[in-house]
Specification:
By secondary structure, the protein is α+β, with helices and mostly antiparallel strands. It is built from 3 helices and 5 strands, in the order βββααββα. The N and C termini lie far apart (about 35 Å).
């Protein structure tokens, strides 16, 4: 789940939006907060967990969450220890 701020007279009001388990490219890009072309490129290069249905990319939210967690661990592991 994430929260979206609505504009206008409801400015500052948060509305809870639930993402579906299977998302398309545009939904995935919004979920990861990247440009759709970045998500597409990563999927095409098999750097992002994805599959195609009828020629269109699909992404499972649970797989993306695991991918993000693994990427964060990998990133932290490659950083030098602070003394």
């Amino acid at each position: 789940m994430f929260f979206l701020t609505k504009g206008g007279f409801m400015s500052g009001v948060f509305v809870e939006i639930e993402r579906p388990e299977i998302m398309n490219l545009k939904e995935t890009a919004a979920y990861l907060q990247v440009h759709p072309m970045t998500a597409y490129r990563h999927a095409k290069e098999k750097r992002l967990p994805a599959f195609k249905v009828g020629g269109q990319w699909r992404f499972m939210r649970s797989n993306l969450d695991q991918w993000v967690e693994n990427e964060m661990k990998r990133g932290f592991a490659s950083q030098p220890a602070q003394t």
